[in-house]
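Record type: ASSEMBLY
Status: queued
Input:
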Amino acid sequence: MELIFSLFVFAVPLVVCGMIIGRSVEKNHFAELDQKEAANRDFLVTNLKTFPMAAAGVQDPAIVMSEVVIGSDYLKSWLAGWRGIFGGEIKSLQTLQVRAKREAIVRLIDQARQQGFNAICNLRVNSANISGVAKSKNSLPMAVVIATATAYVARPKH
Amino acid sequence: MIITNTETVTGYEITEMKGLVQGNTVRTKHAGRDIAAGLKNLVGGELKGYTELLTESRREAVQRMMAQAQQLGADAVVNVRFTTSAVTAGAAELYAYGTAVMLRKIG
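Status: finished
Output:
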């Protein structure tokens, strides 16, 4: 009885809260990413170890790094819990990871642009863990991404 | 000093290998930041405190790596790699390592 009571007092408002606020946060973030990525079309991004199309005798290349940590909302965490019972793709957490990865790349490009570069190569996107042991009950689901690349000046595209 | 995560540096050739250089750090944020992150996890969105934690850790690790390279008298550190590990909740270990080299401008 007490369990059902606490479920209604805590879980239901939090799921509703996640549904309303969390959904709009995600929707806005995706819209923002679409817009920024469209603006970055002219920027050459590769994960090659060489410097494709490098211009000679200009600025020295430099490393660029970005980090993104995005938290889950209560609805996503709750849905993930249910998915754990039946198995299969956890769509709610998949979109969370995608947002973190796309955001990290957008920030890398921003940084490179600020330093006067127009291309990055050897892009590496890694995940990190700052929530401690992932399996523990009180660890919060979050997407932690660290991205690294080398910025350089490329010849303009023809 | 030039730092890259590529094996070569465009516009330069490597003339001398100085060897491996490395730097690491384990950092955490104050408890208030952890509580704020816990609350933010109910509604979603970026956990800025933790992003900052990673940025600071990465900067610190790179600086320590660069200090080692400077001691060896290197011009650049190439093929830089980062690894992270989970030490405890709310803390990040960042380890940066690369190869210190001497460069000569070409062309």
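Annotation: The radius of gyration of chain A is 20 Å.
Annotation: Chain A touches chain B through 52 residues (CB under 8 Å).
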